[in-house]
Amino acid sequence: MIRSLRTVRAPALAASLSNAALIHTRLRLHAVENERVVNEDMLLLRAYGRSGRVERPVITVLLEGEARVSAHGRNEWLSPGDVIAVDSKGEVRMRQAGAKFASLAFEWEPGFVGGRGGPVERWRAPDRALARLREVWTGLRGDGDPAALVEALLAVLAELGAPVEPKPARELDEPPAPHAQDITRALDRVLSNLEGQPMMLDLQDQLHLSPRQLNRVIAEYNERYGFNSSGWIDTRNRRRLMFGATFMTVPDAVAREVAGVVGYRSAAAFTRALRMAGLPPPSAIAAEVEQIARALK
To answer: In three state form, how does the secondary structure of 221-270 look?
Structure first.
């Protein structure tokens, strides 16, 4: 199992987007921690359709902040301690919001650690279960043993009635593909420093690969582990655009500052990228995100 941590900060806005993940060919566990932003799938998925294992079931545990999960014609608004399962990740449209936001998201191949369930199921975690889920979140963002964390998560979710099965850590781990850990570390570094305008050369220097090899290797990595992108350019561009749009939801965000944080050379370049992706201009993003929320309450 591979560990990943990617964080982008906007110090002038006191805002950040951060995701720690355990990566496995048959499951993935995310620990999300955001500050002062609203991350709205209903807006962002206009730019980039979801891909990469979209048929997997997914469970979300809200630990801090507020969230909305829209799936199968339902809009479920969550508060900390709520747990929701959807039978297909491709159905999910989520809103993440709050001065502080924290969640766990777990997806899996049906048959590996449980069935599909669904289409939408919801539970309330009692205090003891919620404390154990917070321990998983903390361990994932720290140095907890990956397989042991998934084992602990499955045990709690199964007790709540989620469509998963407990499984010992020894049956959950897997050796990474050749160079997969090196690729993960390299991507974590450059994608956590979008302000540095990462280029292919930055990855070439870290991985000692030619441009042709690099695109092929990253595309194979994304395919193997079910990431929502193809080669390096697609991976970087998706992240720049979606993080830029999300940072524009912070009160008093300025396009010029946000553009710099996510690696655009100017506000004009940022605005042009949004327009080409079918998204509103920077100044209109926050209002449109709130309009979406009002319409779905």
So the answer is: HHHHHCCCCCCHHHHHHHHHHHHHHHHCCCCCCCHHHHHHHCCCCCHHHH
